[in-house]
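User: Teach me something about this protein's shape.
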Amino acid sequence: MTPDRSAGLLETARALADGACTSRALVERTLARIEATQPSLNAFRIVRTEAALAEAEAADKELAAGVRKPLLGVPVAVKDDMDVAGEPTAFGCEGEWPAVAEDGEAVRRLRAAGAVIVGKTNTCEFGQWPFTEGPAFGATRNPWNPEHTPGGSSGGSAAAVAAGLVPAALGSDGAGSVRIPASWTHLIGIKPQRGRISTWPRGESFQGITVNGTLARTVADAALLLDAAAGNHERDPHRPPAIDASGAVGREPGRLRIALSLKPPFTALPARLQPEVRRQVLQLAETISGLGHAVEEADPPYGQIGLTFIPRATVGLAERVGDAPFPALLDRRTRDAARLGRLLGGAPLRAARRAEAVLHRRIGGFFESYDVVLAPTTAAPPPRIGAMLPLSGFATDRAMIAACPYAWPWNVLGWPGVNVPAGFVGGGLPVGAQLLGPAGSEPLLISLAAQLEAELRWHEAWPPGRAVTDSPAA
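Assistant: First, the predicted structure itself:
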């Protein structure tokens, strides 16, 4: 029997390996769900119907021959900033972009694990904003409330997983772009250590602040996708020691020292944690304490970390804009930010890059007293569709920082973080919390997240009024 859309990555992979279903039937049903929800959720930029069915048939032949791979025949999605051979990588931009010749390294590794890439998910222009809207593709909507955004910039991947269209998806995170949409769609979102999942053909994406990560409904599924996608191209500049993310899921984390950090890192613009989000994060902290961990309020010594983020982000954007085939079609805010990046590309960028080692030492010292930081993922629930799209550049920055002031420092550091669901606020809107750790701490964070999941069972909640049924005709 073909698994229904509540089946996760692990369950689906086992059903295929056991012969309970075929990849062809599974992918056909997945494509039908995607087609049925495109008018309402609009999660996908590209749907690879013919290619995915061909890949599914090839997977079925391997399965029949006794071949076993971690994701053999399982449908997954990737964000539209990742190269998939034969498809354009428009990264949220307008215009006819050329098809790329080769898979990016992360996609290559997913294929090596046997995954079937059913499509590329929507993202805002060059992944800059915490919403997934734009003239290139319209608005991607939140399965929990279609009047609201699923977040960004990995909003298409988050919407696809939250709605049960695919069991898991890859996204990317340059200032929270995996963790923010995960928090706003009630998912696990893993932002791994820099270099854990390759961003090749760009050895450093956005001057090293952007990494690829995973979105799934359960910790085990997010960890399995991380293991499948992890690894490096031979020319990658960042090559952290390998980890076993899936092995960490069933391991007890031990008694941990948790720093509850509710104060937003310093920015030049105001940010305030909304009371309803604060309540949910505090409730999660109580649950963690009840599991035997020591929780106390303490804030990492961020200092002026924001001064190192802006040069890297804007220079990275300028590099992307320089490669765009149709720069005149880009959002005015994009062009303005790229202009700033061209101004900051010399001494300011070099200073920002040098500062990372200082930050590692200073904030790393904080982890001599604590094992994990627990912080809100966002300061607010997801905004309404259209709320940020028409704003000026300054107004957009102000709105972004007000809603999402917590995630970006870990992009400067390059260290791992995991979003976990923290419950719901007014109108049934999901919010999340981050588990943050030092370099290479994914196994510890995953172990703690799995312990929380076993207690809270957040994966059992589904969006109301689910938009499709399990009938391919829906």
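Now, about its shape. DSSP finds 15 helices and 13 strands in the chain. Residues 347-366 form the longest helix (20 residues). If you'd like, I can walk through any region in more detail.
User: That's plenty for now, thanks!
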